[in-house]
Design brief:
The structure is a single chain. It is built from eight helices and six strands; from the N terminus they run βαααααβαβαβββα. The chain has two domains: about 5-15 and about 100-230, HAD superfamily/HAD-like (Rossmann fold), CATH 3.40.50; about 20-95. By secondary structure, it is α/β, with parallel strands linked by helices. The mean pLDDT is about 95. The protein has a six-stranded parallel beta sheet. β2, α6 and β3 form a beta-alpha-beta unit.
């Protein structure tokens, strides 16, 4: 019996071209931190931190892992600039919204889940702090309270595509894999949940399929197909 639906955010509930989003995001971040002495090398440092989170083994939060990697480049004093990062996400990050899309079907599908008594979890790759995820939830026309759990780098110790990311969610929420369906747009990072025994649905509106996987192996389609899929649960 299906009890919960896990949803990805970027490219799923929030339509976007990931490359365009990252370009706008990095541009704003470099502009914010340049007066503090950071240069274009900042982007490489952010990617190093992201890579460290992807390799995280559960021994610390993604937040701790990211700062560990970042401070290896800029020194422990960089941690003093966290308040400026917080300010960026609370203010300038809002400008990145302009490169993202909007689909009212996102709210329709979440409302449908609630009408059917299904638990909803936002299983967005936890490489961002909660403040940035709250913003992107809002851009999608949704509310933080729409989800019983929202993964962020503060409350997660793994990242996609590590199956342990999904195991951590299941353990926290007291769910078995066969009680859940993962909905996402990435044929690898999201559909890997199937290896745990979870149901899956691949949303193709903003499809990411870097490995050229045969997507016929998964239930897939647009929001219209997703809505019909959930109605049958």
């Amino acid at each position: 019996m299906i009890k919960a639906i896990l949803f990805d955010l970027d490219g799923t509930l929030l339509p976007m071209d990931l490359d365009v989003f990252l370009k706008a995001y990095f541009h704003g971040l470099v502009k914010k931190l340049a007066p503090l002495g950071y240069d274009e090398g900042l982007i490489d440092a952010i990617w190093k931190g992201t890579g460290a989170m992807v390799k995280n083994d559960g021994s610390m939060t993604n937040e701790a892992r990211w700062w560990q990697a970042f401070c290896e480049i800029y020194g422990d004093k960089a941690r003093e600039d966290e308040k400026h990062l917080d300010s960026f996400y609370a203010n300038e990050f809002e400008q990145v919204r302009a490169v993202c899309g909007y689909n009212p079907a996102s709210k329709q599908v979440i409302d449908l889940c609630h009408e059917k008594g299904l638990r909803t979890i936002l299983a967005t790759n936890p490489a961002f702090p909660a403040v940035a995820t709250r913003a992107r939830i809002r851009w999608a026309g949704l509310d933080f309270s729409d989800f019983e759990l929202v993964t962020s780098y503060e409350n997660s110790s793994y990242c996609k595509p590590n199956p342990d990311y999904y195991r951590e969610i299941l353990e926290k929420q007291g769910l078995a894999p066969e009680e859940c369906i993962m909905v996402g747009n990435d044929a690898h990072e999201d559909m890997i949940a199937k290896t745990l025994g979870m149901g899956v649905f691949l949303l193709t509106d903003c499809l990411i399929n870097k490995t050229g996987a045969d997507i016929s192996a998964y239930p897939h389609g647009s929001f219209d197909e997703l809505i019909e899929f959930i109605k049958k649960i």
